[in-house]
Amino acid sequence: MAMSLSLLFRRCCPKNRQALHRLFSTASTSESSDDADIVISGGGMVGASMACALAYSDSFADKRIVLLEAAPDRGDFHLPKRYSNRTCALSPSTAGLLSSFGAWEEIEMMRSQPVRRMQVWDSCSDSMIAFSQEDMTEPLAWIVENDVILGAIMRRLRQAPNPVDIRFETSAKSFVIPHVSESWEEKSKHPWVKVELGGEKSIYTRLLVGADGSKSAVRAAAKLHTVKWNYEQTAVVATLRLAEAIDNNVAWQRFLPTGPIALLPLSEEFSSLVWTTTPEDAKHLLKLPEESFVDAVNDAYWHERDKNALADKAVDGFSQLLNNIMPGGTAMKQLPPTVTGVEEKSRAAFPLELMHASHYVRPRVALIGDAAHRLHPLAGQGVNLGFGDVECLTRILEQAVAGGSDLGSLNHLLTYETKRQRHNLPVVATIDGLQRLYSTDFTPLVVARSLGLTAVNSLTMFKNLIIQRATA
Amino acid sequence: MFVCRTCRQTVQSATYVQWPSRACVTAGRGSFEQRRGVHNTRVQCQSLRTRLVVLQNKTNLDVSLTKGAGISTSSSLQGSAEENDQKFQRPMAQTTIDEEEVKKFSNLAELWWDEAGEFEALHSMNELRVPLIRDALVNQRQQESEGTVRPSLPLEGFQILDVGSGGGILSEPLARLGALVVGVDASEENIKIAQAHVMHDPKVARNIKYIQATVEDLVGTEAEKFDAVVTSEVVEHVADVPTFVTACCQLVKPGGSIFLTTLNKTYLSYALGVVVAENLLRLVSPGTHDWNKFISPQDLQYILDQNDFSTRLLHGMMYNPLMKRWSWIKNTSVNYAIHAVKAT
C-alpha cells in the first residue's frame, strides 16, 4: 500500500506534487508561508545562471527553487540593433558553464566577439605586454553585452526541465536568519531562513543564496563583514565607431596615471570603451560634445606627454639585452585602431570600489558574485569570478544532495567558501595591486614596473601561466 | 508529528509512535502497531477487532473532550477516513503535547545538530557512511533489476533500520535520499530529540519513524522486514555484542545488507580512540568509550558468519582532527566499517 502510494506520488506532475505536498504538510505552516529548498535573491546574470545551473541538474529534479527578482518580467529577449554600452569579457571557463545549460549557444546565435589578443602598455614608458593563445586559434575571452548574456540565460531558464519559480517584481523585505537575526530568538526559532516578502507573505527556505549585487541585503542580514575601499575613480563607458572595418579581435588597454583605458571589440566596426579616470575628469568627459569626446579617446591612446625619459632609456637597454639573450622572443607592439565616432547616448559613468566579504557563508546562507566580491574592471575578471562561484556552489550542492545532507548545512557551504576564497582572493589582490602600481608616475616605480612588464613579456612560459590563470 | 503509513497524512500524537494513523486503523485499513513510549511495554492485541475496541474507547475520550459528551462515535467504524480525520482534530490546547517538554528537547536537539559542536565527528562521518550505504544498496538494486535510479532519490523504496539512531544524524540523510527509515534508540531522550529535530522538515519527516526500543524487542514482530540494518558507532557501547548483532541480523531480509561501523580492539585504538579523542582533543566527552567493549573485525565477522552473512567490504576509517574530515584507509586498527549481505 505504502509502495503504491509513493509510486502514485512519483507519477504526479510537479505542480500536483507541490499541491499534494502542501496538503499533507503540517498545519504549523500558515496559509501565506511557503517552503522552498533554495531561494536565490537577485535575478541578475549571476543569480539567474545559478538558478539555471540548478534547474538543469538532475540532482535537483524534485527540489523547489525560487528566484526573486525586483525588476519586472521583460519577456523573451529581442536583440536590439544598437549595441549596449554595458559589456563583459567572458572567459572560456565562463563559456563552459553557460554552455552546460545551453545559454552559450543562445549567445552565439545572437552576438559575441572573440578576443584573440590582448595588448597592455604603459603611457609613461615604451614597455608593453601582449597576450594570446598559441597561434591565436583559441580566443582569450569573448566580449558580450550584459543584456545578451542575461537574455540568453533567462530564455534557457524558462525552458528548464525542473521548473524554477521565478518571481518578478518581488524582493525580500527582510530575512530572519537562524542564530544571526535578533528577531529569530524572539519569534519562531524555526531552523530555516525566513524570507519575508511583505504583505504577510513569506518563504521558509533550507538555503538562501545572495546574488543581490554589491549592496547585498542578504549580506547585511547575515551580518557578514566586508573589506572595502573607494578608488576615487569613475568608469566611463561608451560604444565607439572605428575608422574602418577591420578584423577586430584585439583588446587594447593603456595605463594612464589617472587610470586604465580599455577598448574592447564588439564587431568589425564597433568597439566598447571602458575608461577609468578621476571623478572630475569623468564628469567632464560625459559633458563633452561627441567630436571632442572622440578626440579625447584617440589622444588617450596616442599621446606621449607622460613619457618618462629615464624609464624609456632603461626599457630600451633592457629589451636590447633580452633580444641578445633570446632573439625574437618578445612580442611586437601593435598600433590600436583610430576611433571616428561615438554612438548617441551610449556614454555613461559609474563609480568604482573594491569590496570583498571576509566570509561568503553562514549556516543556510551563501553569497555569490558581486554580493561577495567586487573588483576593478581593469582585467575584466569581475563577472567571471561570479560565474566561477556559480559553478563551484552548484557542484558542492550536488554532492550535498547525493550525500543526503541538508542543503543549508554549514559543512559543505564552508567547502564552497574555502575553495572560492582560495581562487578569488589572489585575483582581487593582484588586480588591486596592479591598479595601485599603475596609478602613479613616480619615477622609481615607473622604471621598476616597466622593466618588470618587459621581462614578463619575453618569458613565454610565465605568460602562458598568466593566461591559464586568467582564463580558467 | 508522525506520518501515517497508509494514507500519508500527518498525525500529532505524543504518547503513540505509530505509522498508520488512528483514523486509518479505525477505518480498518493498514496494519497496526502500537508502543507506549514511556514504559516500553508492547500492547499486543489479539485481533483487529479487539484493537479497534481498544482504540474506540480511547477515541471516545478524545472526542468527548473536544466536542462534549453525547456525540456518538459508534459510526466511525464504518465511516470514511475523511470523516474520522475531522473528528480527531483537536484544538492545540487540548493535545497531550507538553510545550515545556517540546522546548526542552528542541534545545537539546540544537546540541546534537550543531555541526561544529559535540557531535562534529559524527556529522562529518556522514561523508563516508552515507555514500557507503547508498552505493552498496544502489549497486545491489541495479544488479537485481535494470531499473533506473533517480539521482535525487536513489534509496527510494528501501526500508532501513538505524539502530542506535541517537539524535538522527544518520537517519535524516538516509530518509532524505528516499529510504523509509526506522530509527530505534534505547534512550527516550534521544528519541524525543530526534523527533523534535525532524519535525521541522516535512519532506524528511514523511520517511522517518523513531521508536524507543531495543533490537531484541523488534525481533518478535519485525524479523526479516528490513532491506538494510545500520548500526553505526553502536557496537562499542553494547554489553553483549553477539546477542546484539544476532538480533540485528534477524531483522534483515534474505539478501539484505547490514552495515556496521565501530572501533577495533587494539593498543592503537586505545591510544587514539580513548586517550587522544576523549582526554587530549576532547573530540568526544570523556567516558564515552570503554575499550573493553571494543571488538576486532575478525570477531565481528565471525558473528556475522554464524548468522549467514558474507562480508562484502571491510575498510578502515581515519579522522583528521585538523581538517575535521574522515577518509577511507586500508588500515582497520582504529575505526572500521563492515558491509555484509545475508544469504538468500
UniProtKB/TrEMBL annotation, chain A:
InterPro entries: FAD-bd, FAD/NAD-bd_sf, Ubi_Hdrlase_CS, UbiH/COQ6, UbiH/COQ6_monooxygenase, UbQ_mOase_COQ6. It comes from the Eukaryota. The keyword Iron-sulfur does not apply. Its cofactor is FAD. It catalyses: a 2-methoxy-6-(all-trans-polyprenyl)phenol + 2 reduced [2Fe-2S]-[ferredoxin] + O2 + 2 H(+) = a 2-methoxy-6-(all-trans-polyprenyl)benzene-1,4-diol + 2 oxidized [2Fe-2S]-[ferredoxin] + H2O; a 4-hydroxy-3-(all-trans-polyprenyl)benzoate + 2 reduced [2Fe-2S]-[ferredoxin] + O2 + 2 H(+) = a 3,4-dihydroxy-5-(all-trans-polyprenyl)benzoate + 2 oxidized [2Fe-2S]-[ferredoxin] + H2O. The keyword Mitochondrion applies. Pathway: Cofactor biosynthesis; ubiquinone biosynthesis. GO terms for cellular component: extrinsic component of mitochondrial inner membrane. Belongs to the UbiH/COQ6 family. Its main location: mitochondrion. FAD-dependent monooxygenase required for two non-consecutive steps during ubiquinone biosynthesis. Required for the C5-ring hydroxylation during ubiquinone biosynthesis by catalyzing the hydroxylation of 4-hydroxy-3-(all-trans-polyprenyl)benzoic acid to 3,4-dihydroxy-5-(all-trans-polyprenyl)benzoic acid. Also acts downstream of coq4, for the C1-hydroxylation during ubiquinone biosynthesis by catalyzing the hydroxylation of 2-methoxy-6-(all-trans-polyprenyl)phenol to 2-methoxy-6-(all-trans-polyprenyl)benzene-1,4-diol. It is a peripheral membrane protein. Component of a multi-subunit COQ enzyme complex. GO terms for molecular function: 2-methoxy-6-polyprenolphenol 4-hydroxylase activity; 4-hydroxy-3-all-trans-polyprenylbenzoate oxygenase activity; FAD binding; oxidoreductase activity, acting on paired donors, with incorporation or reduction of molecular oxygen, reduced flavin or flavoprotein as one donor, and incorporation of one atom of oxygen. Keywords: FAD, Flavoprotein, Membrane, Mitochondrion, Mitochondrion inner membrane, Monooxygenase, Oxidoreductase, Transit peptide, Ubiquinone biosynthesis. This is Ubiquinone biosynthesis monooxygenase COQ6, mitochondrial. Its EC number is 1.14.15.45, 1.14.15.46. It comes from Littorina saxatilis. NCBIfam families: COQ6, Ubi-OHases. Gene3D superfamilies: FAD/NAD(P)-binding domain. It is found in: Mitochondrion inner membrane. Residues 36-424 form the FAD-binding domain. It is an enzyme of class 1 (oxidoreductase). It holds the Pfam family FAD_binding_3.
From TrEMBL, chain B:
Pathway: Cofactor biosynthesis; ubiquinone biosynthesis. One of its GO terms (biological process) is methylation. Mg(2+) binds at residues 233, 236-237. Signal peptide: none annotated. GO terms for molecular function: 3-demethylubiquinol 3-O-methyltransferase activity; metal ion binding; polyprenyldihydroxybenzoate methyltransferase activity. InterPro entries: Methyltransf_11 (IPR013216), SAM-dependent_MTases_sf (IPR029063), UbiG_MeTrfase (IPR010233). Its cofactor is Mg(2+). It is a peripheral membrane protein. GO terms for cellular component: extrinsic component of mitochondrial inner membrane. S-adenosyl-L-methionine binds at residues 129, 164, 185, 232. Keywords: Magnesium, Membrane, Metal-binding, Methyltransferase, Mitochondrion, Mitochondrion inner membrane, S-adenosyl-L-methionine, Transferase, Ubiquinone biosynthesis. It catalyses: a 3-demethylubiquinol + S-adenosyl-L-methionine = a ubiquinol + S-adenosyl-L-homocysteine + H(+); a 3-demethylubiquinone + S-adenosyl-L-methionine = a ubiquinone + S-adenosyl-L-homocysteine; a 3,4-dihydroxy-5-(all-trans-polyprenyl)benzoate + S-adenosyl-L-methionine = a 4-hydroxy-3-methoxy-5-(all-trans-polyprenyl)benzoate + S-adenosyl-L-homocysteine + H(+). It is found in: Mitochondrion inner membrane. Residues 161-259 form the Methyltransferase type domain. Its EC number is 2.1.1.64, 2.1.1.-, 2.1.1.114. PANTHER family: METHYLTRANSFERASE, UBIQUINONE BIOSYNTHESIS O-METHYLTRANSFERASE, MITOCHONDRIAL. Belongs to the class I-like SAM-binding methyltransferase superfamily. UbiG/COQ3 family. Component of a multi-subunit COQ enzyme complex. O-methyltransferase required for two non-consecutive steps during ubiquinone biosynthesis. Catalyzes the 2 O-methylation of 3,4-dihydroxy-5-(all-trans-polyprenyl)benzoic acid into 4-hydroxy-3-methoxy-5-(all-trans-polyprenyl)benzoic acid. Also catalyzes the last step of ubiquinone biosynthesis by mediating methylation of 3-demethylubiquinone into ubiquinone. Also able to mediate the methylation of 3-demethylubiquinol into ubiquinol. HAMAP family: UbiG. This is Ubiquinone biosynthesis O-methyltransferase, mitochondrial. It comes from Littorina saxatilis.
